[in-house]
Amino acid sequence: MTELRQLAALVEGELRGEGTLLIEGFCSLDHPKPRHIAFMESAPKRALPSTEALGALITTEQLAHHFPTVITSANPRLAFVRVMEHFLTLEHKPPAGIDTSARIASTAQVGKDVRMGPLAVIDEHAVLEDGCEVGAGCYIGPHARIGARTKLYPHVSVMARCEVGANCIIHSGTVIGSDGFGFVSTGEGHRKFPQTGKVVLGDEVEIGACCAIDRAAIDETRIGRGTKIDNLVQIAHNVHIGEHCLIAAQAGISGRTSIGSWCVIGGQAGFQGGITVGAHSVIAAQSGVFGSLPPNSRVSGYPAKPHGQAMRVLALTWKLPELLEKIKALEEEIKRLKKALK
Q: Which of 108, 155, 168, 307 sits at a 20 to 30 Å CA gap from 10?
């Protein structure tokens, strides 16, 4: 348990109420718990829980009057994240150790305080730096490297020579370093273009479940520091993604595409191969991007176009039945006028 005044200091917020109140953990406003803390970003649409049902609230200065015991912050969500991290670090963590069923090659290097689950396989010359957590059934290929304090959930595969930075999180079912989709077509069929490169993930990258990050044909596929990738995303060979990007589920990025830093990509967006998307761009969900975009672009639609233009086009499509009827009426009127002139 932690005193409320300590949490206020942790998030650099202003405390209103009983500073010595002991907080046991965090909760949501929809499911309050006694002696727990929640957060609120906007004016409540219904009555808030009683002080018996909820210990404290993190909110803005403007909304502080809604609850008697609050920590005010300019960014309640970020403050709540810090509180969550505080309580999560207090939870019991299993001691470092390697399950007896894990297979570790004699040439592999395993750092200090590494956790490794059942049936994990660490292949020849692989390197696991200090504090890594490798879940059950994971595979780390030859000469692959996993950075310090990185967590691999069960059944993650990091293939040969691929590199994962420090403090990364990779969720179950994801494959780092699968072969890129490269073939040379001939009259006899499609001959495989050898995929000899690797994948390099920067520090603090998070990748969701069941993603595929393909190795480069030659050189490397690279994902920059701090980028976060949702579930079911496909990133093809030789793609370069900058730092701190957000990529939502089911997006597909074709080979040799370059995405600048701080871009936001909506779900199911697709990218033509070999194009460049400038930094700080926003690509709306289900956009089809077929050409390069300058920095700070805002696009949507299929094919993707400036968002304002795409919205006007979409609005006009709703009027097409009405416009069609008007055209038919005008055609009939023209026919009548032609008869009258004759």
A: 168
| Predicted local confidence at residue 94, as pLDDT | 65
Examine the pLDDT at 93 and tell me if it is beyond 70.
Answer: no
Neighbours of 328 (CB within 10 A): 10
Q: Which backbone phi and psi does 87 adopt, to 5 degrees?
A: -70, -35
pLDDT-derived band at 25 (thresholds 50, 70, 90) equals very high
Instruction: Mark whether 307 is an active-site residue.
Output: no
CB contact set of 170 (below 8 Å; sequence gap of 6+) = 150, 151, 152, 153, 156, 158, 164, 176, 206, 207
CATH number of 100-308: 2.160.10.10
Distances (CA, A) of 27 to 22, 36, 80, 142, 156: 14, 6, 10, 43, 30
d(CA 310, CA 287): 10
pTM: 0.89
What does the alpha-carbon distance between residue 192 and residue 189 come to, in Å, rounded to a whole number?
A: 10
Share of the chain above pLDDT 90, in %: 92
The type of residue at 73 is: S
CA-based angle 92:96:98, to the nearest 5? 130
The domain limits of the chain are 2-90, 100-308, 316-341
pLDDT digits (tens, 9 = 90+) for 158-210: 999 999 999 999 999 999 999 999 999 999 999 999 999 999 999 999 999 99
Strand partners, 190: 185
Among the listed residues 36, 155, 237, 240, the single catalytic one is 237
CATH topology agreement for domains 2-90 and 100-308: no
> What are the residues whose beta carbons fall under 8 Å from the beta carbon of 133, sequence distance 6 or more?
114, 115, 116, 150, 151, 152
**CB < 8 Å & 24+ apart, contacts of 314-318:** none
Topology of domain 2-90, CATH? 3.40.1390
